[in-house]
Amino acid sequence: MTPYSRREILLRWLWVVVQTTLFRWSPRPWHGFRTRLLKLFGADIPEPRKVVVFPSAQVTFPWKLTLEPRAMIGRHARIYNLAHVTLRYGANISQHTHLCAGTHDYTQWSMPLVAKPIVIGANAWVAADVFVGPGVTIGELAVIGARSVVLKDQPAHMVCAGHPCRPLKPRPDPR
Question: Does this model's pTM top 0.90?
């Protein structure tokens, strides 16, 4: 049994076709075109021209995505947004990063879906190949080091890294 309505399943299949053709095949500099496709499928993108999304990025449900101005989704990033994913102003998701907003309740035999939103704070940088789990909020101006596994909220203005990810030192204000 699926938790999704028939309409949502149909819309998802239509998005898969668009994402694997028009979106994926679009030239690399056409970020505005890709953000307009996401917006057409329900993404909340107030200023599509001020957002960067690479053609190899994957978004599961555009209608559960918010991209504020200057947000960026890098090459081969995977946004598995079973719950809402928000990238605040200037949030940067680097290549091969995986934002996973869903899991399963393993304490029940039926293992029902558990979806929790992810928020990446303003001007935060999630470096290459990071995994961010369900329900995580990354604070404003935080830096998440490459290949980290983020399962808990990370504070603002901190450099964080590791498996599991933890705060390491304060991030100085950018010059």
Answer: yes
**Over residues 33-42, mean pLDDT:** 97
Strand order in the sheet with 52-53: 52-53, 72-73, 92-93, 125-126, 143-144, 158-162, 165-170
**In this structure, are residues 44 and 63 in contact, taking their beta carbons and an 8 Å threshold?**
no
- What topology does CATH give the domain 6-166? UDP N-Acetylglucosamine Acyltransferase; domain 1 (2.160.10)
User: If you ran DSSP here, which 8-state letter would residue 55 be given?
Assistant: T
Contact 162, 148 (CB under 8 A): yes
Per residue in 48-93, pLDDT (tens digit) is: 999 999 999 999 999 999 999 999 999 999 999 999 999 999 999 9
Q: Return the closest-CA partner of residue 74 out of 103, 59, 45, 94.
A: 94
